[in-house]
Amino acid sequence: MGNMKEKIKYVSIDLFFKKGYFATSVSDIARGSGIQKASMYYHYPSKEELLFSILKSTMDDVTAYLKNSISGIRNVEEQMRTAVQSHVRFHLDRQKENFIANSELRGLTQDHYRIIVKKRYEYERIFQNIIQKGGEQGIFVKDDVKILSYAILTLCTSGASWFKPTGRLTVDEIAAIYEKFIINGLKQGQVWSGAT
Amino acid sequence: MGNMKEKIKYVSIDLFFKKGYFATSVSDIARGSGIQKASMYYHYPSKEELLFSILKSTMDDVTAYLKNSISGIRNVEEQMRTAVQSHVRFHLDRQKENFIANSELRGLTQDHYRIIVKKRYEYERIFQNIIQKGGEQGIFVKDDVKILSYAILTLCTSGASWFKPTGRLTVDEIAAIYEKFIINGLKQGQVWSGAT
DNA sequence: GTCTATAATAAGATAGAC
DNA sequence: GTCTATCTTATTATAGAC
């Protein structure tokens, strides 16, 4: 809390999550941070740069977290299980930022938009590679890799839109359900075995 | 196009989808509709009422479409297959409205918000009932019914955020992939059979 | 049913004092 | 590094003519 720049970011994440980026004014952010709105411009050159700063660090962190989680795992099914766990955990632990990173891209300038979309693309590629390998090894279905990756990612990401830390289920329980559902979905079920 | 009220709605759906509700001004809507912004207020009492009108008709239509699709089907697995197909098709056919219905709820007044959320709850209940029955009959996993329903719904709904009518895959192909993935996910895979 | 004109307000951002 | 004061512009919405 000693760092006002961090405090502004923290307050903004909360407000952007609750009200949305466009519905949040610089006055709102300043009020939440305990400063005047002009003071915000000392720390960030504009409201859009503040949004970009949030999205950038979120994307960098989620990718680092995923890479660290799956590093050293050779078995493809185990890679996918771990990747799903990693994705779910990060998205539930840092729920607000992730929600913003998935809903407020339209608030960015074109240049900033491109940077974030590129980062997201790299993140998705990690999942697509695992699905691809699983298909080649015959342990996963051979459906369209991109569609499957979007399906898996949005499925878990959506948790960030309804999850309540004080709710009925823990992060562990939710992660377990998703992991199971996705692995079942990716593997050949009895009904489909041999018929692709 | 003879009906200006409908044209305003049509134009607004397009703009809310592309720019978002808060980032779209009444001037933008008027410009797109070929009228002056004051004229919009003859058709809708406010910008918020216009948003509400869009969300209300979307929710009513999607529920009617689903109910009609699954009516008469007794087999639970077949019900889920049909429900998934129905959900995917409606969301891809009326992509923009559905995207708005899932992302712009914060633009509503409290009263309108409650009405829409209640409609969405009723829609989700239909899926939850099918999952529940499938669990009781032993053909689906017995995991948390709500979580599974959210997973299934957001998975398909997310299609509305990346689908391009001119893209690589047709609605039929996407629906088939999702149906397969979800049924596989809901059924006991080899790995999990007997271990719940 | 659509127009012009305008009210009332709030927005993002800057200047310059301290 | 934070303040007060202010500029400029855009916003939602209304009044009243046609």
Measured as a percent range, the helix fraction of chain A is over 70%
Q: Count up the domains of chain A.
A: 2
CATH topology of the largest domain in chain A: Tetracycline Repressor, domain 2
Q: Biggest sheet of chain A, open or closed, and with what strands and sense?
A: none
CATH class of the largest domain in chain A equals Mainly Alpha
pLDDT averaged residue by residue of chain A: 92
* Rg of chain A (CA only): 19 Å
Unreliable spans of chain A:
190-196
Helix-strand pattern of chain A:
HHHHHHHHHH
The assigned CATH architecture of the largest domain in chain A is: Orthogonal Bundle
Q: For the largest interface in this structure, which chains are involved and how many residues does each contribute?
A: A-B, 38 and 38 residues
Tally of alpha and pi helices of chain A: 10
Shape of chain A: elongated
Strand percent estimate of chain A: under 5%
Number of strand segments of chain A: 0
Multimeric state of these chains? homodimer
Distance between the termini of chain A: 56 Å
- What name goes with the CATH superfamily of the largest domain in chain A? Tetracycline Repressor, domain 2
Structural class designation of chain A: mainly alpha
